[in-house]
Amino acid sequence: MQPCTLEAYAEKTKLPLGFLRKLNLSDFSYMGTPAVRIPYLREDGSEGAVRFRVALEKSPEGDGRFRWRKGSKPGLYGLWRFEQAREAGYLFLVEGESDCHTLWYHGFPALGVPGASTWRNEWASKLDGIEKVYAVVEPDQGGETLWERLAASPIRERLYRVELEVPDDKG
Which residues of 40-62 are buried (b: 16+ CB within 10 A; e: fewer)? Predict the structure, then answer.
């Protein structure tokens, strides 16, 4: 299995290493294992939580790619970039950090939910002032779980479902 380093993560996501460093991602040793340190910054830019990516892929036993720093309270990822969404009047709500990184690289406002089943209705107030929230629903059970939680939340009246086509391997 390939070690989870920032360079390997950049290669997997097809994003420039320098761009990821500007987002404060860095290499880290998590319990002796290479990991990528992903800080969850608040709107004011201060560090609120830290998540470590310890694997690039899910294992056959399950999804053990992530760990939280002790004492970290999961929240929405990307709050320090929220002004871009306010200015645009919309944002993409995605599952995880890597989708945020990709959207930000291409100039789109986004926030990440740190896992399909982690949405909390108290986070809805963080989206006040955003007219349209586009939920990107991944083509798996996790995507449906996230959609169900969002569709039952206080943001449902301004929520729009986005499904991406999965390319086949035939070219």
Answer: bbeeeeeebbbbbbbbbeeeeee
